[in-house]
Amino acid sequence: MEIKKVYADALTTLAKGTDAGIYKLNPERVEIVNCVRDVRRVLAECEKTGKSVTFKAGGTSLSGQTITDSVLMEIGPDYGKVEISLNGHLAKFPCGITGEEANRLLKPYGRKLGPSPASIKSARIGGIVANNSSGSGYGIIYNSYNTIQDMEILLADGTFLDTASSESRRNFMKTHVSLLERLMNFRLEILLNPDMQDRILSKYELKNTCGYGMNSFLDYSDPYDILMHLMVGSEGTLGFISSVTFETVPDEPLKASALIYFPSLMEASRAIGPLRQCKVSAAELMDRNALHAVEDEPGMPEILRALPDDAVALLIDTASNGEEELQIQFRDIEERLADVQTLYPVSFTTDPKLYATYWRVRNGLFTSAAGRRPRGTVSIIEDIAFRAHKFPLWTRHTPSGTSRFKRRTGVENGMEMVYFPACITRTMGASADYEDVDTRQVGEIGRLMREPGGLSRSSHLLRLGGRPQFLLSGTKCFRPSLSETGPAWSDRRL
Ligand SMILES: Cc1cc2nc3c(=O)[nH]c(=O)nc-3n(C[C@H](O)[C@H](O)[C@H](O)COP(=O)(O)OP(=O)(O)OC[C@H]3O[C@@H](n4cnc5c(N)ncnc54)[C@H](O)[C@@H]3O)c2cc1C
Predict the structure, then answer these.
(1) What is the pLDDT at residue 456?
(2) DSSP secondary-structure letter at 4?
(3) Rg (CA), the chain
(4) CATH number belonging to the domain at 83-250, selected among 3.40.1390.10, 1.10.10.60, 3.40.50.2000, 3.30.465.10
(5) Would strands 148-154 and 240-247 be described as parallel, antiparallel, or unpaired?
(6) Which atom in ligand 1 lies closest to the alpha carbon of residue 238?
(7) What is the 3-state secondary structure (H, E, C) of 142-174?
């Protein structure tokens, strides 16, 4: 069967034009690209016809990032090739490969990707990096921003830049010197403005994929490094990411998890500080609604159904290279939690099957919770980042959240919130079901979350779903106009 490159029929555009978010637009046509030449061709055609183009990798975005009523450019299955070097410490992956496949290729080296979104089975390198994905493990330390080493980029004007090649950099300098100069001027502007510097530093101490990565201007002094790191989290608005070279992270072979049950959110919040002193890479909290959403999943402990109404569970993850080391980690965790009340003694599992079940269920929590929503409602997910010491304050505020939200927005039916904070990475997902959604309501949920202690929205904000949050988050001053950088980035067609 011939593999088509362009689809314009109603059925395929409907199917391919849908992503994991709640928003809907139907693309006029879908172009499948398998190489730089294909991307360049589509960009040039769109330039000629004045059409906008939106990129799609795995399509697992939740904030309307990959929907369009114009041209949708989908990365095809044959895009680019993989190069693994330095015994797995460096890995160049094409934009179309899934995170799971990348990790499968790295496994023989005992390495893995830093970013680990719960959607890693379907999410692809282009989307992972363009969304600055992280995930439960290591959160903001080993996210895309912090683990990229080089990138191949195609800008809207068709220019190709390989940041690993000095020849490519030299050629880019010849044609795009004004863009590089503007980036350096932005950097200077920020360096001369202590208020803005402080604001940027404080925003990026926590997880923050809210708009462009303005921390690039403070973290790097080389314009190519700034440019490459601005591409991270740019959600396809600055150019096309053709491939990414990652510094990989160790994948310790002995893994263990424990589901720890607490009588209340407040008690669980007391565990966060001690756990952050231990070798724990993830601590994912699930409130009672979240536990209800997964209690019928195969392999989940019977205990879940019998937990009291206020109980919550924390799923923690720890790993090591040796058995003895792992036992020391277990003891350390148990000792540090000795003063925190748990419903049952802490019990670790090293059984790979049970370990995989716990994390599969946790990673599927959003879909499980959404799957239980009443008919005719949609599910919205919201990420909020907060400082660890604000967490107890937030837990006091939480029980009243649902009713207060209903009162404020007038949404009465089928509205239920499910909270699943990632306590080590300091972010929280809250999912809520709505009957009718308007942007005011989407904004309201974020405002409500921020009230107890100035929580801030932390995820994927450049596209449709992020607009109300973007305006609420006070991010305006971080928008030096990138469109002033010249034709490569001024083209609003991306
Ligand atoms: C169940 C579920 C769980 C999730 N869990 C997490 C999580 O734990 N952490 C997290 O961060 N996110 C999470 N997400 C959100 C999303 O899955 C991730 O951000 C994911 O990395 C996106 O990858 P993707 O390949 O699906 O990208 P897509 O959705 O296809 O695209 C994402 C963005 O990148 C742009 N883009 C795609 N390819 C390119 C390219 N080659 N060049 C430039 N721009 C490009 C698109 O235009 C879009 O703006 C979750 C989503 C779901 C449905």
Answers:
(1) 46
(2) P
(3) 23
(4) 3.30.465.10
(5) antiparallel
(6) 43
(7) CCHHHHEEEEEEECCCCCEEECCCHHHHHHHHH
Is 58 a pocket residue for ligand 1 (Cβ < 6 Å)?
yes
494 vs 480: CA distance, rounded Å: 18
Residue 259 near residue 358, CB atoms below 8 Å: yes
Give the per-residue pLDDT at 451: 55
The residue ranges of the chain whose pLDDT is under 50 are 399-406, 408-416, 424-428, 435, 452-458, 460-464, 467-483, 485-487, 490-492
Is CATH 3.30.43.10 correct for 7-75? yes
Angle between helices 323-336 and 265-276 (to 10 degrees): 130
pLDDT for the residue 488: 54
Residue 315: partners with Cβ closer than 8 Å, 6 or more residues away? 257, 258, 259, 260, 282, 283, 284, 285, 286, 358, 359, 362
Taking the C-alpha atoms of residue 142 and residue 159, their distance in angstroms, rounded to an integer, is 29
Q: What is the pLDDT of residue 300?
A: 82
Q: How far is residue 79 CA from its own chain's centroid?
A: 23
Is ligand 1 within 6 A of the CB of residue 153?
no
pLDDT value, residue 438: 54
Give the residue, by CA position, lying nearest to ligand 1 atom 21. 128
Q: Closest residue (by CA) to atom 34 of ligand 1? A: 127
Query: What pLDDT score was predicted for residue 240?
Result: 96
Q: How far is CA 465 from CA 160, 418, 486, in A?
A: 30, 19, 28
Please tell me the residue having the least CA distance from ligand 1 atom 11.
133
The whole-number pLDDT of residue 409 equals: 46
Burial class (CB in 10 A: 0-12, 13-18, 19+), 53: buried
SS3 (DSSP) at 294: helix
Pocket flag, ligand 1, residue 119 (CB < 6 Å): yes
The set of residues, in sequence order, having a beta carbon less than 8 Å from that of 408 and lying 6+ positions away, is 444, 448
Q: Whose CA is nearest to atom 17 of ligand 1?
A: 60
123 lines ligand 1 (CB under 6 A): yes
Output the pLDDT for position 419: 54
Which fold is adopted by the domain 367-478? Alpha-Beta Plaits (3.30.70)
What is the β-pairing status of strands 240-247 and 90-94? Answer: antiparallel
Phi-psi region of 311 (alpha: psi -120 to 50; beta: other; left: phi over 0): beta
Q: Closest Cα to residue 475, out of 485, 467, 486, 465?
A: 467
339 CA to centre of ligand 1 in angstroms: 40
Check whether domain 254-341 has CATH 3.30.70.3450, yes or no: yes
